[in-house]
Specification:
The structure holds two protein chains of two kinds.
Chain A lengths: L7 H10 L5 H4 L21 H13 L6 E2 L12 H5 L4 H5 L10 H18 L3 E2 L6 H12 L6 E5 L4 H14 L3 E4 L1 E2 L2 E2 L1 H7 L4 E8 L9 H10 L3 E6 L17 E5 L15 E5 L12 E5 L5 E5 L6 H4 L12 H38 L15 E4 L4 H10 L2 E2 L2 E3 L2 E5 L6 H16 L1
Parallel strand pairs in A: 1-14, 3-4, 3-7, 7-8, 8-9
Antiparallel strand pairs in A: 2-10, 5-6, 9-10, 11-12, 13-16, 15-16
Chain B lengths: L43 H12 L22 H8 L1 H4 L11 H18 L3 E3 L5 H18 L7 E5 L5 H8 L3 E5 L9 H7 L4 E6 L12 H10 L3 E5 L12 H4 L3 E5 H4 L12 E5 L11 H4 L13 H37 L4 E2 L9 E4 L1 H7 L3 H9 L7 E2 L8 E4 L7 H20 L1 H5 L12 H6 L14
Helix pairs in contact in B: 2-12, 4-12, 5-6, 12-15
Classes of the chains: A alpha/beta, B alpha/beta.
Chain lengths: 437, 472
Amino acid sequence: MSYVPSTPAERQEMLRAVGAEDFKALYRDVPQEVLLDRPLDLPEGMSELEMSRRMSEMAAKNRLFPTVLRGAGAYDHYIPAVVRSIPAKEEFLTAYTPYQAEMSQGVLQSIFEYQTMICELTGMDVSNASVYDGATAAAEAAAMCRDRRRRVTLISAAAHPDTLGTVRTYCYGTGDELRIVPMKDGKTDIEALRAMLTPEVASFYVQQPNFYGQLEDAEALGALVHEAGALYVMGCNPISLGILKTPRDCGADVAVGEGQPLGMPLGFGGPFLGFMATTTKNMRKLPGRIVGETVDSRGERAYVLSLQAREQHIRREKASSNICSNEALCALTAAVYLATVGPEGLAEAARQCMAKAHYLCRKLCGIEGVELVYTGEYFHEFVTTLPRRDEVLKALEDAGILGGLPMEEGVLWCATEKQSREELDRAVAIVKEVLAG
Amino acid sequence: MKLIFEKSVKGRHCDLLPKCDVDLVELPESLRRETAPALPELSEVDVARHYTELNHRVHGVNCGFYPLGSCTMKYNPRIDEDMASLPGFAGVHPLAPAYAVEGCREVLDTAARYLCELTGMQGMTFQPAAGAHGEFTGVLLIKQYHDKRGDVKRRKIIVPDSAHGTNPATAAMCGFEVVNIPSAPNGCVDLEALKAVLGEDTAGLMLTNPNTVGIFDENILEITRLVHEAGGLCYYDGANLNAIMGVVRPGDMGFDCVHMNLHKTFATPHGGGGPGACAVGCKDFLCEFLPASALMEGPGHIQVRSFAGNFLVVVRALSYLLSLGREGIPEAAQNAVLNANYLMRRIQGSFDLAFDRVCMHEFVLDLSRFKKETGVSALDVAKSLIDYGMHPPTMYFPLIVHEALMLEPTETESKETLDWAADIFRALYELGYTDPETMHEAPHHAQIGRPDEVRAARNPILRWQKPEGCHG
């Protein structure tokens, strides 16, 4: 299969026109000794049908679970059909970054609308166009909070392990110190945080709800951080923000999060979407692309990439991040999702996530030997003990149910609006049956 | 056109979910949201029409010629989208048990094997989500390598002044001091300038070859040898790999690690600015430093994002690799180079070439003489192209050429498209001398006239605000 349209005769004609005898002549600057003198060790090209068979065979080797009770950073929500079809439109799909505003108003306006929606969700003033995912958003937030005096980053041990790993790596890059605030009963240890908020601390990151599903006392944490003169970064689940207090109302200076729940499939972990918003005060420290409103030469409203003086192509090594455009189509997906569900639909999805998780938890904990590990308020994830864990999870999988994530403390379960009561009852019955056997 | 918020009507909605079939649970008041977010309230037809209208105001590769230099805007095969949408890929939880994700592993392993073969590397990761993210990953390999050896004096990364801005920004994010070296008059590395900065403090060199002016650096073996002799490592920025894939390999040129933009070279769509995906490859001795997910693979590695990266983009790239196969890959590269040379020679005689010699997959026009003679700038020419339905080339890059326009036609354009484009360039060249005013004011038939970017930066309006006195 080749996507080159020109025919052999046309290629010859073009070679003649550029004064080259053959293709080899075009590579005359390449030293002879490094030219690859053998065919690539790859299979022969395939027709479209053969290739699609080959890829479908690989897809068939994966096992799909109609019921997913596992979250831990990737959430199985209902994706409305229109949210799948709009980002697949060929123009949205095949455009580049909107450098030429006169040809890209559709992309620019969709990002401007996305930015507004993220501000509305988080209560913050300014959103960027996206970063790679929730983990990198946390790392970029930590970087934007540092100044010459305050270089140390604090992060809660109850954050997602991949967020911890990513923030640690970004800190290793710049050579800045990361300190982990320990956990107590499944939540950030607030007394430990108090003691760790020394004058060199630039920011503290907490995830709400945290990796264990627990709802942190986010306002109290924020108040402590501000008392110490540091900045407060919150990592949020966007669905939960349909009903949960906004990061702004909790005192956050930067709100970030993983946008995948807003209409993106699980996709073995990507593409996902990092969202990132801050206050007007910190606007010019925000990394990444930002779209702004202006007027065109005819005085009409128009949109452009704005505040570019922050970015790498202007500042080069003085830029605070190397990030360019990244997940635009995912941001579009999130915007279409939010426009489709609306304020009431988002709140309803959040209420149902919470209701189903609490239902599942009640039923599971009614089984002998299954107990809630962390007993604080939670949204749609919780940890239980689970005797004969591997056996139970396998029995669930055999019945088409991906159970919770096995972890040191037991199992981290998740429920969303997508599961019916029957599905949850069925899962509970299997757990009961295995443990009774 | 109206913003989506301006189309909102209180009480409109889409019916998506059944009524909750279990008891609702109240959040404690201290955790409850006080006011609902002002998201638009719309019916499904409102949403569909709004985004269809926006989509009409987007120029994609499928709309027409897109010769945006350094961006490799080749055609994105539609079948690759279908492959990424297969439920067997799209529906897989990243933390499902190993036996349930064998197909995903096969995709990653196969793509890794093919890309290792293409680049002459031995290890590969797909965790980075974009090109700049891959640069960050690659330079962290270099940093870990020196750190592990206790070679702490190596604090400097060398970057040519023709490099993309992400190169120096990446080196800075990795804690290195950036040493910019001037390019030789032909746009290639100035060997004497390189020798002058190499030393015991050299951590590495970041280089793209072909370089940002579209020329293959014929001294490449000497360059990598010099860096290695000084104890540094060589990083290959794969931005321009499309010119040489299957023809010559970065590993054979002496590079130790490399990044590839799957959304450029391997035809996955750009999506209006992402999601892309990046593969970072390295030689054997750097494999131990590759990133991994703490949750999927356990601790002990660096990690640049969650899970395994933008997996569904890798599915598209592997579909493309399988389609092209062993002969199709060099064929694509060769035709990308042929198309660039053909377009360059067809334009020659009007606008000046920055470098009058054989080019790789892209070339740069230098409009400084034209501007001096007509007053018409590279920007004016770019904006004039929009009226013909052509996406403008990259403007004012690389920085070492003044009034630069950089064109990369890619291999998926036909001869008649290139002829058409060249004729337009030649016509605009003439127009500059006869009617420069028209060009200063271009575009004339676009979605908008030229936007006031200064106003946007001075008076930032970055979100829609509900008009005063409007409730609901």
